[in-house]
Prior knowledge:
Blueprint: H1 3-6, E1 15-16, E2 22-30, H2 37-48, E3 54-60, H3 66-73, E4 77-80, H4 86-96, E5 101-105, H5 111-116, E6 121-125, H6 134-143, E7 149-152, H7 155-163, E8 172-174, H8 181-189, E9 206-211, H9 220-230, E10 237-242, H10 248-260, E11 267-271, H11 276-282, E12 285-288, H12 297-304, E13 309-312, H13 317-320, E14 327-330, H14 342-351, H15 358-370, H16 372-389, H17 392-409
Parallel strand pairs: 2-3, 2-5, 3-4, 5-6, 6-7, 7-8, 9-10, 9-12, 10-11, 12-13, 13-14
Antiparallel strand pairs: 1-2
Helix pairs in contact: 2-3, 9-15, 12-16
Amino acid sequence: MFSFFLRKKKPRKGKIMPGGKESINLLIEVGSFDKGGLEKFVLDMVLLLDRERFSVVIASVGPIGFLGQKAIDAGIRVFELSGPGRKRLYRKILTEERINLTNSHFSHFGYSLFKENGIPNVTFIHNVYAFLNGRQLRTFLQSDKYVDKYIAVSKAARDYAVGRLGVDRSKVVSIPNGLDLEEHKLREAHASDVSRTEFGLAKEDYVLLNVASYNLHKGHYLMADAMKKILEVRDDIKILCIGNVVFPPHVEGLKAYLKEEKLDRHIIMPGFYPNVESFYKMADAFLQPSFIEGWSIAMNEAMFYGKPMILTRTGGAPEVIEGNDIGILIDNEYGDILNLDSALLDSMAYKQRSFKTSTALAQAMLEFGNNKEHWKEAGMKGRRKFVERYDLRQIVKRYEDIFIKVAFSRN
């Protein structure tokens, strides 16, 4: 019955079309396709790929939900791999779709099948993978042999993969994340007004917006330590944290700590809101003192919406803030990125309450509050820099060049 699956067929090679354009049948693997920043990135990338060059299908190892349906509505074929026969189904997809290139995003289920069929794989490194430990770390290291090329979303993500995880430097290229400029122009044009009073904020407050999941790796206790120092000087600088709950006990503990330290009126955590453009419109600046990032989409959003930024020296932050032109960089608590591992990361995020870098963070926030007009102008420079460098349409062209090079290097 399954003799179809037992025949090994060579995947169709890429072909050259009239005019010299290459044609590739591309399969993209994701762990799930419901909601999330990674899934949104995949959807945006797929919709911007050159349809004349790339015939795309998506294989989701987990459930297909909101964003998966958006892809289907846009005419993209999406397969959900579930049940005991999913490897057989995957083999069938690879053969029937005549796949000659695969691209994976923090998902590795099909790697051995790609190798079995002689199909090259390009994998994205979406973060500084210091949080990997145990089985996840072993899986990443064991999977390296199946990857032909990595695209790291920042130089920091690349350097960590090479310097700490042992990935061959020649296999990694760094290409920054971006945003769909046209999509965000529409969102900006239709952004509703958010009332400051709804969140206990006064008109004269200087509001720093933090858009991030309530994951303590984002530096919430560091923000609290810095706020204690700010309150010794002034009380009109506020932090508004918009994000979703990742692990409820951590968030409950954080909120209890903020209340106990009388910081809950200065660091406000109302939860998740989908209309983040309205919050960027309301806020004065953007704050992201994360211990770890890959390339923050929220950072790109802040640039687009013209907000000056205070960022820790992680992920793409050192690539976008140059000489304090559009914001202020704060040194990491741990120094060089290669010093970081999962144990240190978790200790800083979950156990530490006092930070040596909190003074510099407080000083940066006070600098913003004391020199509003200067930093408002700097935020507009950030918007111009975003338009010049981080429009996803231009970045996707760089992905296409990598995809074509890898696909045709096997031919």
